[in-house]
Structures are given as C-alpha cells and as structure tokens.
Amino acid sequence: xxxxxxxxxxxxxxxxxxxxxxxIRIQTSIDLARESIGASIAxxxxxxxxxxxxxxxxxxxxxxxxxxxxxxxxxxxxTKVNIxxxxxxxxxxxxxxxxxxxxxxxxxxxIEKDGDSHRLKIRVPDDLAKYVAPKGSVSLDxxxxxxxxxxxxxxxxxxxxxxxxxxxxxxVRQGQAVHFEVDMLARYVAKMLDK
Length: 195
Prior knowledge:
By secondary structure, the chain is mainly β. The protein folds into two domains: 8-85, Beta Barrel (Elongation Factor Tu (Ef-tu), domain 3), CATH 2.40.30; 104-194, Elongation Factor Tu (Ef-tu), domain 3, CATH 2.40.30. The chain is 12% helix and 42% strand. The protein is built from three helices and twelve strands, in the order E-E-E-E-E-H-E-E-E-E-E-E-H-E-H. The relative contact order is 0.19.
C-alpha cells in the first residue's frame, strides 16, 4: 500500500526483453538499503516487485499481463518513473491510500497554465468514469490528486509547481497515456450503490 506521495523520479536505464518476462532496471535516489528483494515499489503507480538491486538501482520483472494493462510497454531507456516505497508501520499517511493496482489507462486531453500551476484535463475509460467525483481522490502515475471538476468521462486536476517539478507529471504531453487508479473508497461506495 502507498500514499501517492512520490519519493523520487527515477530513470529507466535498462530494458531486457530476452527472457519470458521483461526485466526493467530503474535508477533512483531512494534508500534501497531499506528495500529487500521481494519488496513492492510503486513505479508510476504500478506496484512492482524488486527482484535485484544495487546501491542506486533496482530491477523488476514485468509480466505479459502487466504489460497488457499498463503503459510500461512504452517505456524506453531514459523514461522518467515516479517512485514510492510501500508504507511501513509508523509512516506518515499523506495523500490517500494508493494500492498500485492500475485500473486503466487515462489520456491527457489538455494541459493549461493556471497561474504558477498547471491544469490537466484527463479522459478515463467510460467504465471507470463513475468512480470519479469532484473533490474525490484519484491517482495518476502514482501521484495522489484531488479532482476539481467532472464532465462525463473527463475530469480536471490542478498540479501545483512542487508536484509539477518533483514528479513525472511535469513531463506529460497532450495525448499521452497515464496510469489511472480509482480511490478504493469510491470503488466500494459505487459497489454498494449498484446493489
């Protein structure tokens, strides 16, 4: 479990497609001495398992299932990746609970400057739109965000300068796919209302 408070923007430094699964190496400045082999790390909002590590890098294996449901297959050497370690007992609970289970790919429809901030318009798949509500929480590439407004399957979020500069959201472009995770509370409320 994660909070959507990004600890680092790592960089993909190697992609190995010669095995059954794809092995990806990510360079990061997080304290990897705290991470054991088998630990979960959110990589742009996708929970992946550390299978090997060094002082400033870790490797993950990505299955065909994960590749089919995420944007990871489009990563290249040099791709910027939001990094967050799993919560530990006693850690600060900022943001909202993020589980690292990508619900779908959302599309950046528009990016506009708004004062010092940036406003993004995001389109989600129609079947996920019911989980998005004004002032509710969502996760985009692992970043916990508050929804400003909703219009059908398009919603808006405001990205303050700190988040723009300290996460990979500052690198997004119009038309780009981003990992989208609905808030777990919204998921359960919708399920209860469907009954």
